[in-house]
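User: Can you model how guanosine-5'-monophosphate sits in this protein?
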Amino acid sequence: MSTHSFSKDDPRPGSVLLVAAPSGAGKSSLVRGLLARDPHLRLSVSCTTREPRPGEVDGRDYHFVRQAEFEHLRDAGELLEWARVHGNYYGTLRQPIVEATREGHDVLLEIDWQGARQIRARYPSAIGVFILPPSIEELEKRLHLRGTDDPAVIAQRLLAAGGEMAHANEFEYVIINQDFTTALAELCEIVRVGRLRFGAQSARHSQLFQQLGISV
Ligand code: 5GP
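Assistant: Here's the modeled complex, given as structure tokens:
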């Protein structure tokens, strides 16, 4: 079987990049850095039922929705995937992803392992990147810096982080975020190399491939 086959929802040159991490690994900063450096990459804005954090903007960071609205979107088939994470619902809207990839844009999804599995079922060529902290001590330290020192809360976050990291082996690439600049360069490199994959290149340059007699 061809390794670059596209599914029904995946007919186009734009790639899907899945980025997952336990909280405290520095995923959001790395994703922001990547988006600032790569004008061809679009960030998927997820829906969530969790409350906005200070500074978060509706429509930019998330679409903040009530549970009833989330369930409506899910039941109407408008979500490409959804999952319950830390007691809240999160989901990816189907339409923007289908449209962006159809137009040839690469799309980045910040997503948990459950969502990543569902996306892979529809987009077999999706590239998965898992971001790890450099050590358990460092992860603990970063979780402490997140506002509370309540040992019970920290313990709960560490447990959740362990649960997420148990699925790191479902991702093609792993970045260890010890040094931010190095980790960001590695993430940029993964995106760059992803664009050179046979499936991406043959879709992007279909006329050339046809002219050269290369079967896709
Ligand atoms: P946070 O609430 O801290 O922004 O995100 C919590 C977790 O939910 C993170 O692991 C994040 O990757 C995940 N997440 C964010 N958006 C989505 C989504 O659309 N689908 C899924 N499955 N997980 C998501």
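A couple of observations from the model: The two ends are 12 Å apart (CA to CA). Confidence is low (pLDDT under 50) at residues 1-11.
User: Helpful, thanks.
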